[in-house]
Amino acid sequence: MCGIVGYLGKKNxxxxxxxxxxxxxxxGYDSSGVALNNGSELQIIKSVGRVKDLKxxxxxxxxxxASYGIAHTRWATNGGVSDENAHPHNVGRVTLVxxxxxxxxxxxxxxxxxEGYTFKSETDTEVIAALIDKELKDSDVINAITKATKxxxxxxxxxIMIDGEENKLYATRxxxxxxxxxxDDETVMASDIPAILDYTNKYMLLDTYEVAVLTDKTADVYxxxxxxxxxxxxxxxxxxxxxxxxxxxxxxLKEMMEEPTVVENLINYYKDKLNDLDLSEYxxxxxxxxxxxxxxxxxxxxxxxxxxxxxxxxxxxxxxxxEKVLYTRKTLVILISQSGETADTIAxxxxxxxxxxxxxxxxxxxxxxxxxxxxxxxxxxxxGPEIAVxxxxxxxxxxxxxxxxxxETAYKKGLIKEDEYQDIIKQYELLPKQIRxxxxxxxxxxxxxxxxxxxxxxxxxxxxxxxxxxxxxxxxMKEISYIHSETFQAGELKHGTISLIDEGTPVLAIITDKKLxxxxxxxxxxxxxxGAKVIIVTTExxxxxxxxxxxxxxxxxxxxxILVVPSLQLLAYEIAVLRGCDIDKPKNLAKSVTVE
Length: 596
Ligand code: F6R
Prior knowledge:
The chain is α/β, with parallel strands linked by helices. It is 36% helix and 23% strand. Strand 7 and strand 8 (169-174) form a beta hairpin. Helix 3 (105-114) crosses helix 4 (124-136) and helix 15 packs across helix 18 (560-578). The protein starts with a strand and ends in an 18-residue tail after the last helix. The site of fructose -6-phosphate has 15 residues, from helix 9 and helix 16. Fructose -6-phosphate binds at residues 290-293, 337-339, 342, 345, 390-391, 475, 479, 592-593.
């Protein structure tokens, strides 16, 4: 949700900033801007549209010979999409870029207006700039930043330029990600690791309210009391190539094609590492996340209940954070998040952390993230960078970790016998190759996509764990192809929604549960009788009598979803290709949702 970049060094500043924005564009892309500085002059250029529109605008400008600068790509929250609302914002001595959202901005704006400030934009960010400018009148810079940020409610990562503070940038954060890359005679800051990799693999993170004073050679950090802090410099082993498209036309396709490898790596990684994490004592599990992360949680719920006999609740974080939750039994709360920075999931985590009797376990990709740092336990999914806004490999790995937890818990509780357990383990070993087989059937998905792409409504149906898979398939379809898509428990359709089925309406039926296959098939016949174009997604051992189908190998129930969902992801992708959609950056979306 918005990407910020800052640079101090000898390279061409505007090029470095634009390069960073291009890498971070997945975080927001309705407008962007840069502020360049040569020590005496400040030049701000902004543009609505994509980063390429900003690049074009910059090419037509006479640029100052900058030695440092800041930049931003926006996903609008406060105020519409316009040049005025695009960052950077400048008030008095302060020019800054902001990632996050300030909840008390209106109240602060009013106060500042009463004190004589006027505002050019509708943004919360301009309010922060004014607040720092005001505090600068009777404090030094570090103090002024701290005094200002302490008045903010909400989340922020800020990179700040101050008039009169030549060749220096200031940065601070709370509940929004921010990385300071430390190169040789250059310092580069960004919202995410991939944006610093062209310059350095050494980086440092800021804790809440810490203020960094940055030059091309130094990075000094002060805590909220103004005391200098010794920071640990870390090294990342992310490779820039990992974050590139590797020859694929879209990040989403590249990331789906990585699924066999990342699944194999994760299975090997957790081979002996889950022994210390004993969930068998828990009497209840709550799984919390947003969007796809929550849908991965639904897979976990089915397995924990069916195989480990642990009652499990799955809830979206934006509801859970406000619900009255009764923790009546020994409960584990599992928080799932690719980014580890999703605002609602963080809020849900904070709510749980107030309870000393409830344990938290994070399933996260971003290792330096808030959720990874603050839960009692963390299991990383090790997906590497996921750049496409629609998640694919991270969802698969989130679900995979849950399957491993359910499997191990069931085994520890003696609910799966030794020979069955050993057989399931062997099946996990075969999984990467089988996923590769599913992904290789590009022609099948392309042909099925031709059957669907002209429709404006699609329905998914399934029962039990098949319903959970449908939810993810349907989300992928709507977010990248913009086809209206809904999911129903197969038996529920006839209680109303079947009225929407017309001649040729595509209905995708997921049927992998052998006990329920005949029931779902009966629902398939009901929609077929009303003219639906049915596409069945099933396993090799289930006979279904429909022409259009996707068939995947039959595997243990623990991992069947890990074979089915890649086919749904690829189908959604092929449909989006035929509809000419902007697949990696669907409209209105952003990768990391750091606002409520
Ligand atoms: C859908 C998608 C979103 C995310 C959700 C949670 O393709 O990507 O639904 O799954 O915004 O994000 P994280 O996992 O970063 O908390």
